[in-house]
Amino acid sequence: MPFNSYKDDEQSVETGKLRTLLRLFSYLLAYKKEIILVLLIMAFCVGVSLANPLIIESAIDDYISVGNFTGLFILLLLAFVLNITMILLVKVRMYIMAKVCNSVLLTIRQELYTHIQSLDFHFFDSRPTGKILSRIIGDINSLKDVLGNSVTTLIPDFITICAVVAIMFIKNYRLALASLSTLPVLIVGMACIQIFSHKRWQIFRKKASNLNAFVHEDISGIRIIQSFSAEEETKATFRSLVKEHFTAFQKAVRINDGFGPIIDLCWGVGTIALYYIGIVVIGIDAISAGILISFGYYINMFWNPIANLSSFYNQIITNIAAAERIFEVLDTPSAITDGPDAEEIESITGEVVFDDVTFAYSDAPDIEVLSHVSFHIKPGETIALVGPTGAGKTTIVNLISRFYDVTGGRVLIDGKNVLDITLESLRSKMGIMTQDNFLFSGTVKDNIRYGRLDATDEEIIAAAKAVGAHDFISKMEKGYDSVLSERGGGLSIGQKQLLAFARTFVSMPGILILDEATSSIDTQTELLVQKGIETLLSGRTSFVIAHRLSTIQKADRIFVIDEGGILEQGTASELIAKKGAYYDLYMAQFAG
């Protein structure tokens, strides 16, 4: 199965930029009332901005030129009230949009996290955790400005530009053409920048993801790093990744920095053209001073929104890669889903049947991990699975719990195909323990209750007593309310194992799966948790994967898995007497 490590850039999924933006902006539709209020505020503010040059023109031509200072005072008072109101409403608009944007980001992040929770193991097996975190946190955070400015910049500035152009042409078309003569240069320049910039921002996002994946992996494995004195090597790797990240950012920003000079050049040349045409070509006597001054304001009102829109366009180019990465995950289908006719099951007795089961991973369909495997497990039986690494032992139990689906044949539980049972009801009837007994940050009680969230305190204590965990929990400072750090720091391996047993026991599973559950503990610790294991196995169908054969001597049947199937099966004594594959494994461990 190919794995995308921090050393490898992720493959980009090319989608249309407009399609991505429309999908992103569609999240704003849930806040129609707030957006309408913001647009009304923006309409008022745009109206005031457009009126200001007209007020100045009127003040010069209609009042100052004729000495009407009373009318001038009233006009200036009106302008003052309008502009103060506009300033206050801008603050209100900023507050509303900040609230809306944060709500949208929360929605996208929750939607992304919920979808990731539903994805199958192949998604997680093929990429580092850090790269997944990069999309949930960094990529989503980068969308805030795009969402906010889509309403506060795109719409009002576009309206402002259209209104300014219309007013300029109505007032004097020759002055308008002079003012806008450099617009084609801007359009060509922006198009050229966009072509090169988007690719570079995609590369930057990938380098950021690589860096995040390495840091997560490095911190998770800090004990190994310090144990082998590998700090210098990891520092060198970190420096290399940071340099790649920095270089990618420099290359992307260098292209984007071209926006500003192009706008300034077009703005300056357009202004020069305006006054040249107005004063030299048309002549100062042919137009009033008020019109010429108002055109000076209008050309600023035209290029200011152009600069804002260019900045917004810059943000889009910068962050559209982040939106693409988010939607790529949201569009990733889970290979394991409920069928259209899937039904919930209330309880199971534990009968398990493999009917001519074949399995191969989706990225290696020609390599069969299991080939035409069939067996029948009666309710309450304990089945041990042994065999060399990679033989397919874990694959068998993963097919029972539908972490993967068969590529041929059927898996039946209590006579029902697992494909016809809802995932939630199927897995809620199973207890699964692996060699990595992950504990969450929180209290001891919370960690045990994770097995069944509605378990009472009494049921939690009873589960702990049943597996032999109650004694050491009672000796902790706050007992069941003692707070554990992530992964159970401060507890011994055996204590973590007992808490995991208690967590599994409180779920009261109909089928129990122990996948190398005791491989990480020593023999003495194993004796301490053996009672917990026996309690868990009692009265329920169980599958025990173990390399340590001493833990499975009491199993009802032992399956020796190799070469894609079951080589041998029987009790421990039967298989030893047969002197086959199991006998060889047994003698390798216990001879001498």
Which key features would you list for this structure?
alpha/beta; six-stranded mixed sheet; four-stranded antiparallel sheet
What does it look like?
- Helix content is 61%, strand content 10%.
- The chain has 592 residues and is an alpha/beta fold.
- The strands form three sheets. Strands 6-9-10-3-11-12 form a six-stranded mixed sheet, sandwiched between helices. A four-stranded antiparallel sheet has the order 2-1-4-5, covered by helices on one side. It has a two-stranded antiparallel ribbon with strand order 7-8.
- β4 and β5 (416-417) form a beta hairpin.
- It is elongated.
Short recap of the structure:
It is built from 21 helices and twelve strands. With 592 residues, the chain is an alpha/beta fold. The longest helix is centred in the first third of the chain and has 50 residues, at 69-118.
